[in-house]
Amino acid sequence: MHGLSFKRKPLLQNESFVQCGEKGAFMNTDLMFSSKSNEWETPQELFDKLDNEFNFTLDVCASEENAKVDTFHTIETDGLTSNWQGHTCFMNPPYGREIGKWIKKAYEESRKKETTVVCLIPSRTDTKYFHDYCLKGEIRFLRGRLLFRQNGIEPTKDQRAPFPSMIVIFK
Predict the structure, then answer these.
(1) Would you give the distance in Å from CA 28 to the centre of its chain?
(2) Residue in 58, 60, 96 with CA at minimum distance from that of residue 78
(3) 121 and 145 in a common domain
(4) Mean pLDDT of 77-104
(5) N or C end: fewer C-beta atoms under 10 angstroms in the chain?
(6) Which of 50, 82, 52 is nearest to 165 (CA)?
(7) Are 64 and 72 in contact (CB under 8 A)?
(8) What is the DSSP letter of 72?
(9) pLDDT tens across 27-85, in order?
């Protein structure tokens, strides 16, 4: 396969890793190909850069522990069914099977008066939601892989996201 060799090497109990090439990096394939977690806390440095540009007034997908804006929606207050009109929204949605519903909601809310939605999502250009909605916004592909906190645990440099990310801006 183009001169690359792949070897499986378990580094931690109950996890599978694939090494790419002789000196290549290891990837956690259990996380990459599973739905073990769909919550990826936004890296603070990235959020701060976006907030400096957009001045967010609402975090539409948050928890008490990871909210980035004083006004936010949690699972209990359900951002999918609430009105975002008049806000500059930050959205880092759950990355599971429901992500398409969040992207559709972001696009629809952005059509309302004085509403902007900035989305941090996996760069999955082969999905229906990408073609149906993301292409209608401004897309900024992020270089490299982000380091997300999960479950309040700080990542190490070798625990980068198993996917590339992008910012989609709906105005």
Answers:
(1) 17
(2) 60
(3) yes
(4) 96
(5) N
(6) 50
(7) no
(8) B
(9) 444 444 333 555 678 999 999 999 999 999 999 999 998 999 999 999 999 999 999 99
Count of C-beta atoms within a 10 Å radius of residue 109: 22
Token pair of 110 as six digits: 């952005």
The CA distance from 123 to 66, in Å, is: 22
19 and 3 together in one domain: yes
**Amino acid at site 2:** H
Please state the φ and ψ torsions of residue 31, each to the nearest 5 degrees: -70, -40
Query: Token pair 């957009």 is at which residue?
Result: 54
Model pTM above 0.90:
no
Do residues 132 and 97 both lie within one domain?
yes
Length of the chain: 171
What's the confidence (pLDDT) of residue 37? 52
The domain tally of the chain equals: 2
